[in-house]
Structure formats: C-alpha cells, structure tokens
Specification:
single chain; alpha/beta; 5-stranded parallel β-sheet
Length: 213
C-alpha cells in the first residue's frame, strides 16, 4: 500500500479495518437473546441486524448517551420477540462488545502499523464508535500504544459529517492534505475524507484486500 510523500498522519477506521468481532455479531445476539426466550436463529438474526443498522443510522450529531440509545433501538429491533423491561439484553451486549476479548486484530494490522511507526508517521484511529473503543484497543497491541483515538460519540458527530474531519484536524494540528484515512466504508472512509480535503484509501476486506496489497 503506497502512502503519498506529503502525508504526515495515517488514521484508520476501526471495525472492519483493524478489528473484527469474534464470535460474529449474529452468534452473540442469538445466544444472548435465547437466554431471554428469543426464538430467532443465527441465520435469522443476520439480516435482521443489517436492517436494524440501516434503520437506526447515526445522524448529524451524536454523544455517548445518544450512541447508547441508538444501540438500544438496534438491539430491540433485532430481538423484538423478547420481553426485557430491565434492559438485561442491552446491558449484556453493551458489555460484551466493549470488551477487548470480544474482538480480534486482522493479521496484517500489527506488522503494517509497526512499519508505519518506524517510518515516522503519526498514527491514529478515527471511528464511528464510542468510548468503549479505548478499552478494546488497550487489549490489542500495537493499538494499545495509540494516543490519537477519535470516536464519533466524543467528537460530537460521525463520519462522513465534515465536522468530524475538521475536529480531528484541529486536534492533530495538521492541514487536511497531510492526513490519510484508511477504512472499509466508502462513505465514511473515502467520500467523506476526500470531500474534507484528506487523502483516503478504501480497504475492501470483503474482496480479500489487505493492508499490504
């Protein structure tokens, strides 16, 4: 993967770029839901989760509270056959996906990250996530050494909102053209940053691409 010579900071999206959930999301939802009486199979959960994510997408503004509320809507949209007045399912899933042990690092991440650090790039993470991402990163070297972690719930707006990229620029103290974002989402990690004046690389892991290609 070629990095333009004028780039000073290389930022990465998190989920789907650096890390992935293990066990898969649908299996976790199925198991957690079944404990409360859900009858949905893993195969049924997969399309239900995808549809719920689309219905409850992040808007122009977000926060820690709004993000948890969004996930409340997603969880009970997916598992709509459970009675859960105490929000046990939400709490279970929230804690699960906030744990480093629930995520795995893609095999190409550590060597690529270390090579970029050796070459003197400022490295960071720019993700539509919440503060749980910091705990997750601490459990996955070399991400545990990353001090530049930008999550939408703390920035106040998600990618691909222009305000997200401008907030990152301000905190890094860099001009837009000095920043490169690598990620797997076309809108958030390519179209958005390019519109903000950044450089961008679309990593298509779904097509078998890797950071070393």
């Amino acid at each position: 993967m070629q990095i333009p010579s004028h780039i000073r900071a290389v930022l990465f999206d998190a989920v789907g770029t650096l890390i992935y959930p293990q066990p898969p999301v649908a299996e976790v939802y199925h198991l957690a839901g079944s404990r409360l009486g859900s009858k949905y199979s893993v195969e049924e959960v997969v399309p239900r989760f995808r549809a719920a994510i689309k219905r409850h997408h992040q808007g122009g503004q977000t926060s820690e509270e709004l993000e948890r509320e969004r996930w409340r809507q997603i969880v009970y949209d997916v598992m709509d056959d459970v009675e859960d007045p105490q929000r046990l399912l939400l709490n279970d899933l929230w804690q699960h996906f906030g744990s480093a042990s629930s995520w795995r690092l893609f095999d190409d991440v550590a060597p690529f990250w270390k090579d970029l650090a050796r070459r003197g790039y400022l490295l960071g993470i720019a993700s539509n996530f919440d503060s749980r991402l910091r705990t997750i990163c601490l459990g996955h070297p070399p991400l545990d050494e990353c001090h530049q972690i930008f999550v939408s719930s703390e920035v106040g707006s998600p990618k691909p909102e222009l305000s997200f990229y401008r907030a990152v620029e301000q905190q890094l103290g860099l001009r837009p053209e000095q920043i490169l974002l690598i990620g797997d989402d076309q809108a958030a990690d390519v179209t958005g940053p390019l519109a903000a004046g950044w450089q961008a690389i679309w990593l298509r892991r779904d097509l078998g691409e890797s950071l070393t290609d």
